Amino acid sequence: MIFDRVKPLDAILATAEKKSLHRSLGAFQLTMLGIGAIIGTGIFVLTAEAAQKAGPGMMLSFVIAGFVCAVAALCYSELASMVPVSGSAYTYTYAVMGEMLAWMVGWALVLEYAVAAGAVSVGWSGYFVGLLDSVLGIELPLALTAGPSAGGIVNLPAMIIALLVTGLLVLGTTESARVNAILVLIKVAALTLFVILAVPVMQMENFEPFAPLGFAGISAAAASIFFAYVGFDAVSTAAEETQNPQRNMPIGLIGSLAICTVFYMLVAAGVIGSVGAQPLLTPEGIGIAPGSGEMTAACNAIANNTVVCSKEALAWTMREIGWEKVGDLIGLAAGLALPSVILMMMYGQTRIFFVMSRDGLLPEKLSTVHPKFKTPHIITIITGVFVAMFAAFFPVGALADISNSGTLFAFAMVSIAVMVLRRTDPNRVRPFRTPAVNIVAPISILGCLYLFFSLSGYTLLLFVGWAALGLLVYFAYSRGASHVGKGHVEVHEDDADAPPTSVPPIN
Question: One MF term from GO for this chain (predicted)?
Fold first, then answer.
């Protein structure tokens, strides 16, 4: 039952063959695409979270997360080059390992997109609230800027931005490539300025002790920091447009990940060296859980005078070292760039739902297109409401970790699919072949499992609960309604140039 109902790969590939894309991207263009896709949300939002989990050791956490991304990306690229159609890991799994596992991957991608959009909404709220306070002197009450676990009632700014983005998606407003490029430049410029000003004032004593909570803390931070790399597989989805993909794809993937890892480490070093990044501990010497009520109380006791208490870590650091206006500019950069991230994540979520609905695994009513706006408005509104609820009541770190659990599960499944397909269909044309696949793919799987089980017990329990709910929905509805189960296999001509839905260039 687990491996039955495989969607014929030939039918899926027929979709892609309807239209061929011009091969124009070289190694440099792919590397730039990857940098633009990766740098952003995670480093702006999760630096304080990582510092609370690992202290200065978070620098090593960036290396670990980047390495796991690299091997996962090499596996992802092979399937993306073979099957350049919409649906991402869900479609790949459907073609290789069958409907039930494909459903579970699609179900997990809800965590990757919708929950991640909630995390970015909360991150945007932190910078927005800090900017209001610093520039206009308007201090919003904690009750309206944090969820219950962080001592508030509802994170109203996060909820509002999520609903505003939902409205834009229903109206059909999408960002152009030019606007996205400008926002990428803003993000990179802000982080570069941070490094230029923070690194020269580093004090080496702030790096001691390097790992106050041991390697377990570094692993936990790496599992959270993985969120900062989500977006790397935007390079993978460009395989069909790449010149000499066997040479240029690894250069683009590894090059962009290496550059971003170094960049992230410089930012982390700037934070640690300039203002310190030691975690807050209980009297017993145990690290306090970020985003918890206990963390809020500990921060209040020291008047929030440490980076681990900040909801806008990079802007806060700049203000602490005497660059208040630059801190405001970094806050403004985050405020401008992050809503587009929310938009693209929610767009990716609606696209996954749209493909699953068209396959019959979700009610086809969900993929109804609005007669005036020409958008899947029902799916978009449902997604937006859930994202707004996530943003309103959960802390950013918890949302990022939950999102990571779904992403890591999907990437592990793709790595397994690559090895399975090499055995079951070895003669299939592969524009890009994962190098040393019998070594790289198992390392990718083990790396994803390592980060997955480094997440908090709370996160793992939520993932298990979400997976159980997914299986219940599958057997109660989706299995009986499936088009493949009924013998209907459709080819959709318009998918060949559909927007990539693995993770668009958003982070």
Answer: amino acid transmembrane transporter activity
Residue 95: CB partners within 8 Å, gap ≥ 6? 6, 7, 8, 9, 12, 83, 421
Collect all residues with Cβ–Cβ distance below 8 Å to 147 and sequence separation of at least 6.
153, 154, 155, 392, 393, 394, 395
Single-letter amino acid code for the residue at 61: S
Q: What is the CATH number of the domain that holds 429?
A: 1.20.1740.10
In the structure encoding, which two tokens stand for residue 337, read together?
């760039």
Q: Measured in whole angstroms, how far is the alpha carbon of residue 285 from the centre of its chain?
A: 32
In a domain, 236, yes or no: yes
In a domain, 142, yes or no: yes
DSSP H or E stretch at residue 168: helix 156-171
pLDDT confidence bin for 3, thresholds 50/70/90: low
The 10 Å CB-count burial string (b at 16+, else e) for 432-465 is: bbbeebeebbebbbebbeebbebbbeebbebbee
- pLDDT tens digits, one per residue of 69-102: 889 988 988 887 777 665 667 887 888 888 898 8
Two tokens, residue 171: 């109206």
Provide the domain count of the chain: 1
What token pair was written down for 347?
Answer: 């767009």
User: Which residue is listed with tokens 């008047």?
Assistant: 303
Structural domain of 92: 25-482
Quick one: residue 504, left, alpha or beta (phi over 0 = left, psi -120 to 50 = alpha)?
Answer: beta
∠ Cα 401 93 451 (to 5°):
25
Residue 495 lies in a domain: no
Distance of alpha carbon 46 from alpha carbon 52, whole angstroms: 10
In a domain, 18, yes or no: no
Which pTM was predicted?
A: 0.85
